[in-house]
């Protein structure tokens, strides 16, 4: 399926549509490859999603929002590749869906033996916030066993906030287990006034994740603004989680969080602007950041991770490997 404007396969129903198997299928340069709404797809296997705006879109209920509408779900996604999917948002009226899989409030039983490579959600001036470069979850996912490489979220605006370069687990989202490797995934925010980047590989925000296990290498969160910037969790960031991350186990190498609030002074100005003197930068958790949240256990190795904060006025940089901040933050067991 090549260069179609809307969902190539759209399984949408008010009474329960059903597709058993999508196998050995290529979805290339479409708006949305597979759209599931008020219905179920049992299995997507041995398939390729490439150069689409969004590979798979799952909406938990049909338009109209009635509680009687059926829940949307995919059983298994296996042996499937998501490559170079890129959702470029330039209008405030465009929907900012993740590039590979966007699960608004449905469910996926498991994602196994699959790869996510070079998938990017890119916002330029249209919106202030974007999350989930490869996978966004606002519903339920059982197991994620995959390889995530060079996926990311990029936001450029007056206010710019980017989170979850590989996976974003949003409010009330639940993921039972993530057993995956993450390499060079990123959250990148460029703001004229304010920039925030969190969770280069994984961002959990007021959701629940059971166990996270894998190798995290070269992931980063980078924020740049001439006035205020914050970068947190080069690999994993958890913020404002009403629920928790139960356990993190893995190897963390070369992940970083960098906040840059330096302002350039034009040569023709006699004196720099107030922004030059008042810029602020915060960088927390080169590998893992925990903010007003609970992580019950971390059993991992950390090497070559770092934070850096640069500013003309005030800079704070904490936790080259791990940062746990605020009175409500807790890491119960660190081994």
Explain what the structure shows.
This protein is mostly beta strands and 335 residues long. It has one helix at residues 274-278; strands spanning 9-23, 26-28, 32-45, 48-50, 54-59, 73-78, 81-83, 86-89, 101-103, 107-117, 120-124, 129-131, 135-137, 140-149, 152-163, 167-169, 174-179, 181-183, 186-198, 202-205, 208-217, 220-225, 228-232, 236-239, 244-253, 256-261, 280-284, 288-291, 294-303, 306-311, 314-318, 322-325, 330-334. The longest helix is centred in the C-terminal third of the chain and has 5 residues, at 274-278. It contains one helix and 33 strands. It is globular. The protein has a 22-stranded parallel sheet that branches. Strands 8, 11, 12, 15, 19, 22, 23, 26, 27, 30 and 31 form an eleven-stranded parallel sheet that branches. The N and C termini lie far apart (49 Å).
- Note poorly predicted spans: 11-15, 62-70, 265-272
Instruction: Characterize the largest beta sheet: strand count, sense, and whether it forms a barrel.
Output: 22 strands, parallel
> Which band does the percent of strand residues land in?
over 45%
Helix amount: under 10%
Described by the principal axes of the CA atoms, the overall outline is: globular
SS elements, strand count: 33
What is the average per-residue confidence, as pLDDT, rounded to a whole number? Answer: 86
Structural class: mainly beta
| Terminal Cα span | 49 Å
Please, how many helices?
Answer: 1
Q: Calculate Rg over CA atoms.
A: 20 Å
């Amino acid at each position: 399926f090549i260069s179609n404007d809307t969902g190539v396969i759209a399984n949408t129903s008010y009474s329960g549509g059903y597709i058993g198997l999508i196998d050995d299928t290529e979805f290339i340069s479409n708006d949305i490859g597979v759209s599931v709404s008020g219905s179920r797809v049992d299995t997507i296997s041995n398939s390729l999603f490439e150069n689409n705006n969004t590979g798979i879109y799952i909406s938990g209920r049909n338009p109209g929002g009635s509680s009687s509408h059926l829940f949307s779900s995919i059983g298994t996604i296996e042996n499937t590749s998501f490559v170079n999917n890129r959702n470029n948002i330039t209008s405030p009226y465009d929907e900012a869906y993740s590039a590979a899989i966007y699960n608004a409030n449905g469910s996926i039983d498991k994602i196994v033996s699959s790869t996510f490579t070079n998938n990017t959600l890119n916002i330029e001036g249209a919106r202030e916030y974007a999350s989930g470069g490869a996978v966004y979850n606002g519903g339920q996912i059982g197991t994620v066993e995959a390889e995530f490489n060079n996926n990311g979220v990029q936001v450029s605006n007056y206010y710019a906030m980017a989170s979850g370069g590989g996976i974003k687990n949003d409010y009330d989202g639940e993921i039972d287990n993530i057993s995956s490797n993450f390499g060079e995934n990123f959250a990148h925010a460029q703001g004229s006034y304010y920039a925030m980047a969190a969770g280069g590989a994984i961002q959990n925000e007021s959701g629940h994740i059971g166990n996270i296990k894998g190798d995290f290498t070269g992931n980063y969160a980078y924020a740049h603004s001439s006035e205020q910037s914050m970068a947190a969790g080069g690999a994993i960031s958890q913020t404002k989680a009403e629920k928790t991350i139960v356990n993190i186990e893995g190897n963390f190498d070369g992940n970083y969080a960098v906040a840059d609030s330096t302002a350039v002074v034009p040569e023709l100005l006699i004196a720099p602007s107030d922004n030059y003197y008042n810029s602020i930068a915060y960088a927390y958790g080169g590998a893992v950041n925990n903010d007003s949240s609970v992580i019950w256990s971390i059993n991992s190795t950390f090497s070559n991770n770092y934070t850096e904060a640069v500013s003309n006025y005030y800079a704070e940089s904490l936790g080259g490997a791990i940062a746990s901040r605020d009175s409500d933050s807790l890491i119960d067991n660190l081994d």
